[in-house]
Structure formats: structure tokens, C-alpha cells
Amino acid sequence: MLFDSYYLCPTVLGACKNKRFRYVGAAKKNRTFRPDGRPFDKKRLSTYGPNTLRRLGRWHTIPNKKNHRLADRVGDLSRAGRVKLVFSRRKSEQSWIALATDETRWNAKTVLQHYLSRWPIEVLFKMSKQHLGLGDYQFLRYRAVERYLHLVMIAHLLLTHLACEKLGAKAIRQGRRLPLRLPSVAQMQHTLRSMLWDDAVSAMEQGPRYAEIGKKLKDIIEL
After folding, report:
1. Core-most of 46, 47, 56, 113, by most CB within 10 Å?
2. Contact yes or no for 185/123 (Cβ under 8 A)
């Protein structure tokens, strides 16, 4: 489970524990932390984070990202319990973040790579809200809401599939596969509408009843 600092709370963490989900979440800098071996040494993250990065931080290369200076410590975080904290700062930047996870066996780079997966998820929900009606349901029953959300996600999968099939979406340059640069959801919606319209006109043209109408529509479109 991946979430920001708002959801790093006992309620959400308890739900993750009940479901046996591992989590990675950002921690607010006003929280306190007690490192392992020093149960009475309470540190505030706002000062503990920069000091730990300066003393223990090491530079790591993250694929397709800036280099990050990372440092990790295990201990007890306020309102979260025993966690591994990973402090991260991008190269050429002064700002830093603290990431908390209950999987203390992961190294700092693994924790950061998991957390960086949040951004594509954020884009998914943003595009789904703007173009696919996510959140616009008017049902009260839980099952109806759940089915509506499933339909929205199926629509997004269909548009993504069409985008992947577009010519050049899987371009290979100089013998090296590049990251996919897919069209936007809005562009793919326009493409899908055009495909559906073409199918409807072709069906009319081939049918015995509306063949003449379909042929005229096709001539007009081609003009």
C-alpha cells in the first residue's frame, strides 16, 4: 500500500495489518522517532532527518530519476509503531522526505522505488476523474458503487490498450527499447469515438435496409 502523510495513521495502518498488506507512506516532519537501541532518545523528524542524511546518507542511482541521497533507520515512530524510516533527498535539491514502512527487511533503495510508483497511480485517478467520470456516481448501494468503479477502470484499460496498439507507441530507437509515450486519455477517447462511428457507418452500408444512407454518410465523411 502506498499513501501520503495524511493516511499514515493508526486506522489505515491497522487495516493494512489485518489484510497483511505491506505499506510505504510519507511521514510528517513533526512526528517523533525513537531509534532502535535508544528507547528514551526521542527525535523530531524535522531535525533528525537532515542530520541522518548528512551523517549516514549515500547516493543511489534510480532508473529514469535523479540520483537520491538515502539513509535509513529502524525504530518506533509516533502513532505508527515499529517501522523502517528512509530519508531521501534528490540531487541538487535541499528538500527531503521521510518514508515509513513496516517491512524493515527492505533496503532504502527498495523502499524509495516502491514509493515512486505512487505518481502513475495519482495520474490514473486524476485522468479518470477528469475524463471518465470517476466519482460522479449517484448510487447509494455499496455494490452499485463498486460496479461503477469497475466499469470506469475497464474503460481506462480499453483506452490504454488502444494507445499501446497505435503505430509507434512501442518504438525502438538505436536498438534500445524506450519508455512508452502514450497519448492522453482525452486523445484516445476521440480515437475510440472515431472507430465506433466508422464501425456504425460500415454496418449501415453493408445492411440491406440502410445501405444507401450508410454509403452517403461515408462519402460525406471522406470529403
Report:
1. 113
2. no
The predicted structure's pLDDT at residue 134: 93
The amino acid present at 82, given as its one-letter code, is: R
Q: What pLDDT shows up at residue 174?
A: 46
Entry field: residues in the chain: 223
Question: 106 and 81 share a domain?
Answer: yes
Cell of 29: 516532519
Class of residue 88 by CB neighbours under 10 A (exposed 0-12, middle 13-18, buried 19+): buried
Quote the CA–CA distance of 109 and 180 in Å, as a whole number: 24
Q: What's the distance, Cα to Cα, between the start and end of the chain in Å?
A: 52
159 and 87 in a single domain? The answer is: no
Q: How far apart are CA 75 and CA 98, in angstroms?
A: 13
Q: At which residue does the C-alpha cell 452499485 appear? A: 144
